[in-house]
Amino acid sequence: MDVxxxxxxIAAAMRAKTLAVxxxxxxxxxxxxxxxxxxxxxxxxxxxxxxxxxxxxxALAEAEAVLRGNGMPFGIGVLAGRHPSVDAAVxxxxxxxxxxxxxxxxRVADLARVALPPDVRLAEAGPDDLSxxxxxxxxxxxxxxxxxxxxxxxxxxxxxxxxxxxxxxxxVGVATGVPAGWAVGVFGVAVAxxxxxxxxxxxxxxxxxxxxxxxxxxxxxxxxxxxxxxERLGFREVARTQxxxx
Length: 246
Hints:
By secondary structure, the protein is an alpha+beta fold. The chain has helices at 3-19, 56-69, 84-92, 130-140, 145-151, 154-159, 200-209, 226-233; strands spanning 25-29, 32-36, 45-49, 75-79, 96-107, 120-124, 161-167, 170-180, 183-191, 217-221, 236-245. Helix 4 (130-140) crosses helix 5.
């Protein structure tokens, strides 16, 4: 998968994930996509560059108007160096990089096996598990429980596979694999604080990456120490995603 294909896969997965939220919308604007979950989290309401726009200045202005019209600040994800006209336009508009993170890919067939502790079980989540998965997500990421509940819906189960780790029937970890063509995007790898450093996050990542029937490639974004965990599984950095804000 080259970087341009990666960008299209990211957009497709984000589109599916956003539309799985009740009331979620996606606006397509000249190569940009604006994801509007309408959840109270700017990280779930932002723009992304799918392909090089014909008029980047106008596209950025329209994307910002859509976000602000829905009560959200402007933020846009850009694969660094892949869209020169967008890079120039965001700088000219006075935006700055809030953060940058590696985007990593791996061949699904080459992912390393992970030995789980004997008391941990992995299983695919069903509708009855969504409430507990949302609670775990909010705890692991120190987030808003209402946002997590809005994300973990029956709609998500229609477009993705949510993998949970349990100990004695209690959820201690969760991860989501969103198939998009020949690739799977891995999102929300979360482990309860008391269950960390036991290989659970790595096992969840591997299971979520294998969520797409026939998918050859998995991708994810990494922050901090998580990148080293993903490298041990077989993921390698192929691009960097910059988040620009005003």
